[in-house]
Amino acid sequence: MEAVMAIVTGVSVSVGLAINAWLQQRRNADVAARIEPVLREQGPLPLRALAEALDMPGFYARGKVVLALNQMIAEGRVESIPAPEGTPQLKKGELIRYRLRAEGDAIKPRDGSKRPRTRGRARRGAA
Fold first, then answer.
1. pLDDT at position 21, please?
2. What is the pLDDT of residues 48-107, one digit of tens each?
3. Count of CB atoms within 10 A of residue 45's CB?
4. What is the CATH T-level fold of the domain 2-100, as seen in this structure?
5. b/e string for 52-76 if b means 16 or more Cβ within 10 A?
6. How far apart are CA 104 and CA 74, in angstroms?
7. From CA 30, how far away is CA 17, in angstroms rounded?
8. Which pTM was predicted?
9. What is the C-alpha separation between 20 and 27, in angstroms, rounded?
């Protein structure tokens, strides 16, 4: 009986986490759809200014914007402009800016190779 309860608990937690991840992706997509026009109109912006332009003031709302930005960076749609060298660690968050990538910009490879990849590149082995 204890084994059945452990299995049921594990399955329930797994289903709950899967639903949560799916809902979070949908929420991030909604915020991402709002980020693109703002960056297109106003150019590169720091996180705080971007959140305020989206009418999402506050610390918790900035977290939502960061989640959407991270997803967009992973997809290659946005890039971050790092803070200048010598910036104190606590000030870097205020100085890092985000901008949209141009359509033909190369995306840095994640595998550490020197070869840049571009969006729309065919997968290896694909005809």
1. 87
2. 999 999 998 888 888 889 988 998 999 899 999 998 999 898 888 888 999 998 765 555
3. 18
4. Arc Repressor Mutant, subunit A (1.10.10)
5. bbbebeeeeebebbbbbbebbeeee
6. 16
7. 20
8. 0.62
9. 11
